[in-house]
Design a protein that fits this description.
By secondary structure, the chain is α/β, with parallel strands linked by helices. The protein has three domains: 86 residues; 268 residues, 3-Layer(aba) Sandwich (Rossmann fold); 53 residues. The protein has 14 helices and nine strands. A nine-stranded mixed β-sheet has the order 4-3-5-2-6-1-7-8-9, with helices on both faces. Helix 1 packs parallel to helix 13, helix 3 packs antiparallel against helix 13 and helix 4 crosses helix 10. The chain is elongated. The structure holds guanosine-5'-diphosphate (GDP) and magnesium ion (MG). Magnesium ion (MG) binds next to helix 4. The site of magnesium ion has 5 residues, from helix 4.
């Protein structure tokens, strides 16, 4: 707890310094000097600022941790999320563009007959549209909202689903499903791969990538036996630059006889050449059979999944995945916090150095010893002020006591003289 309090103080300092730097850059004199640089630095600071807001709200427990699933179209993202949610509620299909907007799913307890609240949120002023549904109708309602999120109208922000999900990872995580993204919309590989319906991949890609900065943990989905150059390009251009994702290989039904998960991962590592060790192989289709089994509708799905995932070779990837997610979300670990804040500080320092080269003076980030020295000085000043204040009040009181005392004494002397 102590580490978190200290971390929050350091974050506050960064906050103030970055805000002061932004104000400095907005000064007309600087903007005229080097408008190009000012614009770049402003954007950079705003990006940093957003990251701090995100981290701050996480550390103070004001929001859930957010896990986002990304990847090219039809890599099994929505199917695999249904397994993580313990409920088959997200639309999945064999054609590109099934998931049409970012969809955030989180736990909310409810005893109502329609315990799931599904909301379509628009970017601009339009009022959100909200429907309450029983679990069996959630998928249908989401599809209705997806249809409404007409491609020519890109002002839809996201869809939110809140209800009693049965996640075997934990209830304090918000999961986000995203539309399939492509690194380049004229990709021939996609047409070869699928009977592509006519759709504007740019809008889906934009919607998916706009979600990237707001998530804390990224899961990147690829498909066993699928084509790879689009995945590699998307991964290298958009994901790995900023994030350290967990990699998931779905569709393990394509495995050759006796092929182990390790062998699949090894093969993928050779083929993708980017895929690091934190990769798991999953068969969502098989796991969904357990989730959709009528017998299991009213039972504790987390317990059932745990047991089956541990026993079944095809499903064991889910257990590994849970371990990886939990390890990544260990954000209250003092080492993780310190590393992260040091990272923020370093990027601010390099920005300030860069600014100096451009003859712009940004506020200096105080060092911890400077902050300590400043605090000490404040404490000394407060201490001194307290005694000065006490002395002043005491002096006033003494002065009044003396005045009153002397007056009474004079009166008594006068009275004594008069009455003899
Ligand atoms: N056999 C098998 N099929 C899968 C698996 N995951 C997804 N699929 C199928 O692949 C297709 C695309 O899945 P979807 O979840 O919609 O992909 P998304 O576009 O990445 O969200 C659907 O027909 C799924 O049923 C899996 O692990 N095994
Ligand atoms: Mg999908």
């Amino acid at each position: 707890m102590h580490a978190i309090e200290r971390a929050l103080k350091r974050l506050d300092i960064l906050f103030h310094t970055a805000n002061a730097a932004l104000a400095q850059l907005e000064l007309p004199v600087h903007n005229e000097k080097n408008p190009e640089y000012c614009k770049y630095a402003q954007l950079y600071l705003i990006g940093m600022w957003n990251d701090w807001v995100k981290y701050h709200s996480l550390l103070t427990g004001k929001r859930n941790l957010i896990v986002g699933v990304f990847g090219c179209p039809s890599r099994g993202k929505s199917s695999f999320l249904n397994v993580l949610l313990g409920l088959d509620i997200l639309p999945t299909d064999n054609f590109i563009g099934t998931t049409k907007a970012g969809t955030a799913i989180s736990y909310q307890d409810s005893k109502s007959d329609e315990p799931f609240a599904i909301t379509m949120i628009y970017e601009k002023n339009a009022e959100p549209e909200k429907k309450n549904r029983p679990v069996d109708s959630v998928k249908k309602q989401v599809e209705v909202f997806y249809k409404k999120s007409n491609l020519t109208d890109s002002c839809i922000d996201k869809i939110e689903i809140k209800g009693p999900i049965r996640s075997f990872i934990g209830n304090n995580i918000t999961f986000v499903d995203t539309p399939g993204a492509v690194p380049n919309s004229n990709n021939d590989e996609l047409d070869e791969e699928k009977n592509t319906i006519l759709c504007d991949m740019d809008i889906y890609t934009e919607r998916a990538l706009s979600i990237l900065p707001s998530v804390d943990v990224i899961i990147f989905c690829t498909k066993h036996g699928g084509t790879v150059s689009t995945d590699i390009e998307l991964y290298n251009k958009k994901i790995i630059i900023k994030y350290d994702p967990i990699n998931v290989i779905t569709h393990s039904h394509n495995r050759e006889d006796g092929q182990t998960n390790e062998a699949i991962i090894k093969k993928a590592q050779d083929k993708y050449d980017f895929m690091p060790d934190n990769t798991v192989v999953l068969d969502s289709k098989k796991a969904l059979l357990i989730i959709n089994d009528k017998k299991n509708k009213k039972r504790d799905i987390a317990k059932i999944l745990n047991k089956k995932f541990k026993k079944d070779h095809d499903l064991e990837g889910f257990i590994k995945l849970r371990e990886m997610v939990l390890k990544k979300i260990n954000y209250k670990d003092p080492v993780v916090i310190t590393e992260r804040i040091t990272g923020f500080e370093e990027s601010y320092r390099s920005l300030a150095e860069n600014a100096a080269e451009n003859e712009i003076k940004l506020p200096k980030l105080p060092t911890l010893s400077e902050i300590k020295a400043e605090k000490k000085e404040i404490a000394i000043n407060n201490f001194r002020d307290f005694f000065v204040g006490l002395f002043k009040i005491s002096w006033k009181i003494i002065k009044w006591i003396l005045i009153v005392g002397i007056s009474i004494a004079i009166i008594l002397v006068v009275l004594a003289l008069i009455f003899g």
